[in-house]
Amino acid sequence: MADGLTLDSVRAAAARLYGVAHRTTVLTSAALDQHCGGHVVLKAEVFQRGGSFKFRGAYNKLSQLDAAQRTRGVVAYSSGNHGAAVALAARLLGIGAVVVVPANGPAVKLAAIEGYGAELRRYDPARESRAEVAAQIAAERSMTIVRPFDDYEVMAGQGTVGLELAARVPDLGLVLVPVGGGGLAAGVATAVKGLIPTATVIGVEPTSAADTSLSVRAGHRVSIAEPDTIADGLRARQPGELTFPITSRLLADVVTVSEEEIVEAMRFCFSRLKIVVEPSGAVALAALLVGLVPAATQTGVVLSGGNVDPADFAALMKA
Amino acid sequence: MADGLTLDSVRAAAARLYGVAHRTTVLTSAALDQHCGGHVVLKAEVFQRGGSFKFRGAYNKLSQLDAAQRTRGVVAYSSGNHGAAVALAARLLGIGAVVVVPANGPAVKLAAIEGYGAELRRYDPARESRAEVAAQIAAERSMTIVRPFDDYEVMAGQGTVGLELAARVPDLGLVLVPVGGGGLAAGVATAVKGLIPTATVIGVEPTSAADTSLSVRAGHRVSIAEPDTIADGLRARQPGELTFPITSRLLADVVTVSEEEIVEAMRFCFSRLKIVVEPSGAVALAALLVGLVPAATQTGVVLSGGNVDPADFAALMKA
After folding, report:
1. pLDDT 10s digits, A238-261
2. Do the first three CATH levels of A7-53+151-318 and A55-145 match, i.e. the same topology?
3. % of chain B surpassing 70 pLDDT
4. Is B220 an 8 Å CB contact of chain A?
5. Would you list the DSSP string of B127-188?
6. CB neighbour burial string for A213-226, b if at least 16 within 10 angstroms, e if fewer
7. Which pLDDT tens digit goes with each residue over B197-228?
8. Which residue of A96, A153, B95, B225 could cross-link B90, Cys pair, CB 3.0 to 4.6 Å?
9. In B, residues 225-284, which contact A (CB 8 Å cutoff)?
């Protein structure tokens, strides 16, 4: 596997994902273009297998394991999209998978992971560290740990989102991408800047999970308190060790949006686009809708996932 | 304009709509295929301009008005998708439009119609008949009435949904389509049966708005009491005078689904497909999901619209 993230490693990931991951559609909206004063292309990863971009990175990683590693299996820690993505990729490749999940995690999401055939290992978030639980399992069973973002092959897989966007809109001036641990942002920025050096790539995160924004300003990785945000996929407390050097070099800026702005963007997607976008998936659009970042003549926005429980969605729409 | 509905009149409508209406995407779901035991292709009219199939019929009708008719304008009665569709088509063609709406209609929908530039004429549903109000306006101002379904050109426009579905899946064995007044069902059945005579087309309506189902069984048009259903686009009290001879001849059956089954289908679309489907738009899928109609090897399902207020949707998901 490659030691680093390059346009070529993203292209290699695209070749592995060909015919396996969906080449997701892009959506446009005349109302959105008028509102923003530019043409906006929305990359709808809500339609990706497993409901988010995470499948790309997980499959790219798992498909490169050798026969011995495949036999021993993989372990991931995540109650959310990464857990489901690893479970799905493992099933497709015939690899055993353990997913470490909080005992109090949402039943719907845990059932989805189990539905893909993965073994659940519940841990108590108050007493245990999920990374340590995963490390212990990996050591005991000689399993390969699949990190959610701090892995060049995971990043390369996520970067195929940017590759497809740049292929679809060759004159992209601006790309907005959600930032959690930074895997998607690093991958997309590497692909887009590699193909279109003049394009500006900007990261977006919730104001209450501004670890990357703060780190970029500080010039080094800053750790924040446990974030309190509805964007459950973006609750990283600090940027990744491997992602941060890439995002801090390639992103022109990292901006933040409020919880209310995230909900408004979800509502726009529901009412105007007729698609379901989860809170984490809506932050990039939120930044554009509120005018935090002015649109370019051609702007790409990553809607990174659509896994939100109908009841949770209902509560947000009513509030 | 044609006196009757034929495959050729649907084809002519398609030519008029080319480059104006969206040729909407089709969606598929491995989970749905497995559940149904056949391949299911969902025609996503939620992505149509104005958020429902209604734009097709309205534009096909309005685009054929002569210069004098265009100058005098059009009038429609509907607080829902037909009203918005006529308003949008009129704006695109530079035609004045009056839309007769209930004074107590949902503010969001009335605002949408007004947003497309149509003149609203509010009436009191307790005291007035909307058809009579529209007829009076048409007489006073020499305007053309655009009926929501009982018009061959409106039906031909809606039929382009079937034309696109049959072109996309040439070996369709079964098509499920929502039935309100019968315009969509008549158009789709004419197109599908015209292109694929072996295909079975089945209509679906809410149990509490079973006017077409009862009429088909009676052999003549039956009128029912004011329907009480969340499927606000399917509240016709009796089949159309022009639509019924067509639907009763071409539909193999008309089946009914409960309110709960409609909500379940909406939830499936939200959770699994990540798209927003309004109650009326979900009835055909509901019939398939509950096994009321067994899937064919290739089944087409029309998801006819996605205009549902987020707060109303929230209330349905929580119930």
Report:
1. 999 999 999 999 999 999 999 999
2. yes
3. 99
4. no
5. T--HHHHHHHHHHHHTPEE--SSSSHHHHHHHHHHHHHHHHH-TT--EEEEE-SSSHHHHHH
6. bbbbeeeebbebee
7. 999 999 999 999 999 999 999 999 999 999 99
8. B95
9. 267, 270-271, 274-277
Specify whether the CB–CB gap between B144 and B72 falls below 8 A. yes
Task: Tell me how far apart the 2 most distant CA atoms of chain A are, in Å.
Answer: 57
Contact partners, residue A97, CB within 8 Å, separation at least 6:
A73, A74, A75, A76, A86, A87, A90, A91, A117, A118, A119
Closest CA to B20 of B52, B60, B67: B60
Mutate to test the interface with B, among A274, A307, A309, A316 (most CBs of B within 10 A): A274
pLDDT at B1 over 80: no
Burial A14-44, CB ≥16 within 10 A → b, else e: bebbeeebbebbbbebeebeebbebbbbbbb
Q: How far apart are CA B23 and CA B48, in angstroms?
A: 8
SS (H, E, C) B41-80: EEEEHHHCHHHECHHHHHHHHHCCCCHHHHHHCEEEECCC
Residue with tokens 């996929």: A233
B contacts of A267 (beta carbons < 8 Å): 310
The 3-state DSSP class for residue B261 equals helix
Query: What does the alpha-carbon distance between residue B123 and residue B130 come to, in Å, rounded to a whole number?
Result: 7
Token pair of B81, please? Answer: 């998708």
Class of domain A7-53+151-318 as given by CATH: alpha beta
Find residue A176's DSSP bridge partners.
Answer: A202, A301
Fold held by B55-145: Rossmann fold (3.40.50)
CB contact under 8 A, A274 and B274: no
Q: Is the confidence metric ipTM above 0.90 for this complex?
A: yes
What distance, in Å, lies between the first and last C-alpha atoms of chain B? 47
Q: Are B171 and B299 in contact (CB under 8 A)?
A: no
Is the per-residue pLDDT at A201 higher than 70? yes
Task: Please answer whether residues B255 and B292 qualify as being in contact, where contact means their C-beta atoms are separated by less than 8 angstroms.
Answer: yes
How do the domains of chain B map onto residue ranges? Answer: 7-53+151-318, 55-145
Task: Give this prediction's pTM.
Answer: 0.94
* Confidence band for B107, pLDDT divided at 50, 70 and 90: confident
Q: B275 vs A276: CB contact, 8 Å cut-off?
A: yes
Angle at A47 between CA A180 and CA A158, to 5 degrees: 40
Residues of chain A found within 8 Å of residue B274, distances taken between Cβ atoms? 46-47, 51, 275-277, 306
How many CA atoms within 13 Å lie on the side-chain side of B45? 31
CA distance linking residue B143 with residue A143, whole number of Å? 74
A7-25, pLDDT tens digit by residue?
A: 999 999 999 999 999 999 9
| pLDDT, position A319 | 65
- When pLDDT is cut at 50, 70 and 90, the band that residue B196 belongs to is very high
Size of interface A-B (CB pairs under 8 A): 52
CA nearest to B309 within chain A: A271
A94 CB neighbour count, 10 Å cutoff: 8
